[in-house]
Amino acid sequence: MESHILSYLNWGDYARLASLHSSLSSIINDAAAQCNDAKWTLAQSLLQGKNGLEKNATLAMKYLEELAGVQVSTESFDPSYEEVTPTSIQEIDDNIASMRQLGKCYLEGNGVAPDPTLGLAWLQQAYLHGDLDSAHETAVIYEYGKYGVEVDIYLAAKWFHGAAKAGNVESMAEYAMCLELGCGVEQSDEEALEWYRKAAELGHITSNYSVGEWFECARGGLPQSDTEAVLWYFKAASMGDEDSKRALKRLSDIARIVVPGWASALNV
């Protein structure tokens, strides 16, 4: 009966009931305790101030820490990359999502004093449980020195490489750029092209442009081929890449032969 009634209430209803009588003061905790999904929804409602609740990031973090189910400290934090088995998006549960959310809270100072090291430690914990997005985000933080973290191009490259090997498409493109520029790794056109192609074949828009550009300029051991360049540019342009549209206009004499009707197809 109780669970049937609770299914009709939102978190604001729980809060109003709790204010009516002291015996109902634990109703929100009791509702959240029903399942992890309920606790996750409550934490998000408190973080964002929605579903009838006022924003309370501090309380939200309490629920997120309960969901995470692990202890994280700055003392045990090691920023080096460690290879793990990735978890599919469908398998990312509330526990792992809570680890990632806690990382963002500590990085942004949402509900707690900002603590970049602890934020990175929580992101790493999420990654160690299979969350590739956390690995990519860690790399970006080191690359740009976000949240007051010191720029470290070598750590950024390691995390991009690790996430790329595990299948993160954005990290494939970023690691390709590291190789192309020799940023944090030894410069290699051939390896850069390999990662650009992997990312492109998985639908990464700008990587399709990059492969086309490298065919046009005969880089990475590729033979010069405007025909191949046009084909790659057209793939990227079809996904909305403006640089590729300009490249097709520049190579329009070849494009109209290789991809008849390309201009009308792209509405340019």
Secondary structure topology:
Blueprint: H1 2-6, H2 11-20, H3 27-32, H4 36-48, H5 57-68, H6 94-108, H7 116-128, H8 132-144, H9 153-165, H10 169-181, H11 189-201, H12 205-217, H13 226-238, H14 242-250, H15 252-258, H16 262-266
- Based on Cα principal axes, name the global outline: elongated
User: Total number of β-strand segments?
Assistant: 0
Q: Give the number of helices.
A: 16
**What oligomeric state best describes the polypeptide chains here?**
single chain
Query: What is the chain-wise order of helices and strands?
Result: HHHHHHHHHHHHHHHH
- Can you give the helix content as a percent range? 55-70%
Strand content is under 5%
Mean pLDDT: 85
Give the N-terminus to C-terminus distance in angstroms.
Answer: 62 Å
Q: Compute the gyration radius: what is it?
A: 24 Å
Query: Uncertain runs with pLDDT below 50, 5 residues or more?
Result: 1-9, 17-27
Q: Structural class of the helices, strands and pairings? A: mainly alpha
Largest sheet, described in full?
none
